[in-house]
Design brief:
CATH superfamily: Alpha-ketoglutarate-dependent dioxygenase AlkB-like
Number of domains: 1
Strand order of the largest sheet: 6-3-7-14-9-12
Keywords: Dioxygenase, DNA damage, DNA repair, Iron, Magnesium, Metal-binding, Nucleus, Oxidoreductase
Largest sheet: 6 strands, mixed
Structural class: mainly beta
Number of helices: 2
Radius of gyration: 15 Å
Subcellular location: Nucleus, Nucleolus; Nucleus, Nucleoplasm
Helix content: under 10%
Strand content: 35-45%
Shape: globular
Number of strands: 14
Enzyme class: oxidoreductase
Protein name: DNA oxidative demethylase ALKBH2
Subunit structure: Interacts with PCNA homotrimer; this interaction is enhanced during the S-phase of the cell cycle. Interacts with nucleolar proteins NCL, UBTF and NPM1. Interacts with XRCC5-XRCC6 heterodimer.
Length: 163
């Protein structure tokens, strides 16, 4: 599944501690983040069926799933906001988890908010939907959990602006 990409932080390249693969039926669409361009693969029937379940439950008909595989608790993603240039910021983002339960931590972007960071456990089969403006005001992450020894797969469904 996918490959290990790299991310540029303060001018230095680091490997991303997880594997990723992106899907779209639009060949002109690429996933671009932190200096990386990940080519897309055609939708699989399973991922399309999962997208349709979310759609039939009242969500949008997302056009772009990103799959991340976390091998164990050492694999993580740091605090960030989804701010890819082609992301439709008016659409929610749906996150579907399989495998190990991992913490999903939310922290306010503005430190003057009176709300403290908090975590939600994302168990196998859980669906988290971030509606706008969540992504504008909150950073999110999957922190390392050294005690976790089993894998987790996450499918993040988004709506990307088509070129």
């Amino acid at each position: 599944m996918g490959s290990l990409a790299r991310v540029k932080v303060y001018g230095q390249w680091f490997p991303i501690p997880r594997k990723q693969v992106a899907y779209s039926n639009n060949k002109n669409l690429t996933y671009t983040f932190s200096g990386n361009k990940i080519p897309v693969r055609p939708w699989t029937p399973l991922i399309e069926a999962l997208r349709d379940i979310i759609y039939e439950s009242g969500g949008p008909k997302f056009n772009f799933p990103l799959v991340n595989r976390y091998a164990d608790g050492r694999d993580k993603i740091g605090a960030h906001r989804d701010d890819e240039p082609d992301l439709d910021k008016t659409s929610p983002i749906a996150s579907l988890s399989f495998g190990a339960t991992r913490k999903f931590k939310l922290s306010p972007v503005n430190k003057q908010f009176l709300v403290k960071p908090f975590s939600i456990d994302l168990a196998h089969g859980s669906l988290l939907i971030m509606h706008p403006p969540t992504n504008k005001h909150w950073k999110h992450e999957i922190p390392a959990q050294a005690s976790m020894t089993t894998p987790r797969i996450n499918i993040t469904f988004r709506t990307m602006k088509l070129k």
